[in-house]
Design a protein that fits this description.
GO terms for molecular function: lactate racemase activity. The protein is an alpha/beta fold and 424 residues long. It has two domains: 174 residues, Alpha-Beta Complex (2-enoyl-CoA Hydratase, Chain A, domain 1); 238 residues, LarA, N-terminal domain (Rossmann fold), CATH 3.40.50. The chain contains 16 helices and 20 strands. Helix 11 packs across helix 14. It starts with a strand and ends with a strand.
Amino acid sequence: MKTYSFPYDYKSVDVSIDERFVQGVLVSNAAAYKAEKSPAELVEDALDHPINSPSLEELVAGKRNMVIITSDHTRPMPSKVTLPILLRRIRAVNPTIDITILIATGFHRPMSHEEMVNRFGEDLVKTENIINHDSEDAANMVEIGTLPSGGKCVINRLAVETELLISEGLINPHFFAGFSGGRKSVLPGVASKVTVLANHCAEFIESEHSRTGKIDENPIHKDMLYAARTANLQFILNVVIDSKKEIIKAVAGDCVDAHKAGYEFIRSLSSVKAMPADIVITSNGGYPSDQNLYQSVKGMTAGEASCKDGGVIIIAASCKEGHGGEALYEAIKNMESPQQILNDIHGVPRNETKPYQWKIQILARILNHFKVIVVTEDCDHQVICDMHMTPASTLEEALGIARGIMGEDASITIIPNGSTVIVE
């Protein structure tokens, strides 16, 4: 027997399995990567050597105001390290510049005061001007162009009208944008609802190019890149983290070239070969990524990529906030079948995308081929049942249920953190 651990909320949950049944363990090498410098030194070094860009100090000099876009509560961005360094270096050359920190909530809820303190630190929250983006606040949006998809490119007025727009972010594999970070801080980060809906349309989500680790032909990425360039995102600081959520790599500079340097680094560490099995056990990486079922669909896609058709995906995810989206909950709860949902969404025009349609579409795609068991102590099990998934309180219980479906000798693939691997 061997014990396997999976991130869950702020802790981990374990299960012991006879190794005879384990096909393999798919894990990103970023989890155990040893950086030669401290997190702060890595950030300073990246800022000292910007990629295809003037330095941050050069860009800041002479400006009256600027906006720094930062990640929201759904991303484990180590802003307690990065933001103080950015602010210190900015004010060293321009002490009087007016700085707004704009939280890239995208289509998510706003960050609470407690979450801000947890993310940024109490002193920074007290002293800095921090604003939650609201994708539905039409009065504070500006239309700046037309996306390659044909949708309107409408962005937060603060980001558009500032003299200098920069961002900080986290680079991770992303289940339909290829990778997070870079251009994604603008779209969906600080984009209008209408722009997010156009970008997350059914046609693009269906595309074989809109998958984890894919960038070049990804239509969702192309829209995002257009938005970032048109909004004049002049500089980024992006980081890669390990399993302890500590920085192991930092890149800075041009929003395309610096981002590419970062995602090629994570690609080199996180690409793994699929090991098809009857049962896949995974997680969504613990807090903050497993706050709700909406976010935890990401981890399920890693299971999808290595599970035999008709198999079982077990995901350990706290989901202490429940489903995370009423539209997602109602659509899955009331569906006749996953295929019916996919049929209904297929062909919905780009400009008629409904809120959460993309997550409904991806979850229905998964449920159309696999049974899903959600391991949680924190989410109402009835919510999971309502959404045509099976709840379990422990991984051991979940594995028993899965073996009841697939047989006692079922093969098993372990993916400790499904949000960090690129399964090929």
